[in-house]
# Entry
Amino acid sequence: MTERIVLAYSGGLDTSVAIGWIGEATGAEVIAVAVDVGQGGESLETIRQRALGCGAVEAYVADARDEFANEYAMPTLKANALYQGHYPLVSAISRPVIVKHLVKAAREFGATTVAHGCTGKGNDQVRFEVGIQTLGPDLKCIAPVRDLALTRDKAIAFAEEKGLPIETTKKNPYSIDQNVWGRAVETGYLEDIWNAPTKDIYDYTATPEFPPAPDEVTISFQAGVPVAIDGVKVTPLQAIQELNRRAGAQGVGRIDVVEDRLVGIKSREIYEAPGAMALITAHKHLEDITIEREQARFKATVGQRWSELVYDGQWFSPLKRSLDAFIEDTQQYVSGDIRMVLHGGQAVVNGRRSETSLYDFDLATYDTGDTFDQSMARGFIELWGMSSKVASGRDLRVAGE
Ligand code: ARG
# Structure
């Protein structure tokens, strides 16, 4: 029987050429797998037809937008995940959901190998292959760009020679990856890290020439998940989409960073994540009133570690799963409303309310009705400073000897 390979297929030039390229190099049949994670653009049907037109024996397409929003974006939100304090893990969280579908397709079509279009320099190859190893340990991996010398120039020549139904002339100097959680842009002019991004780089966010009026929005959460916007019920996917639109129009969520890749390279990325950044900001502010202090402090550390694991391709790892359980436990009371103003590239919270809040007006107030007994503070401070005071006494004694 002819060997079969499932290929993570985007519909673009490189993976379209990869279908025939892999076929010629290995003699295997190629099954194209296209997963909709909210990247927009062409319909799945158009992509399916192109895959078949480029020589795929089968095409597997999946609308995974809700799955991605519910099972990947929401855990990222609950973790307030920002890799290196900046990056909301846009590409990093899409790889595991694509991996799930690749493995499913491999089983359905009897494939022995999984292929993807990543280079040998980035994080995504690691995320794909570590995911495949974990969910389908019997499956082999191949990356035509990395393993079969499929360069850009060769791809264009191949497409023209074979008359593949794909445009080869459209030149985009950037490498772009996008989904409903955000958009990542790298390479080209941006590789000089002193160069400021030009306007044409952005797509999810506007640079308003005439800034629109400030947009005030109320986001309601239930156990850490957005459930309504301005009182209208939404699914997680709808919440992200709606805030991509409204926060995007105000230029919220633009990120320009040099980040540490897993392979040891520092690289410049421009991200746009208006919905994700507005949601994370709102969610964090709701946590500030609903999560107890020590739990909140520890959760910040857990969220950071979670972000590193996910960035590093460890989505399916035991530690990531354990941290998920901790984070999930902290979300029990993260319910209520956050009001924020979207304007001038910022999402600024200006009101919060919750039935499960720990904010106690009577304890906090400086007005009449204060229930806090200030006389307790003196003794508390005395004991709180005791160990430092004892140590400093020792330091003075030793210095004087
Ligand atoms: N550096 C980011 C990451 O590793 C984004 C990579 C996405 N790819 C791209 N072609 N921009 O998660």
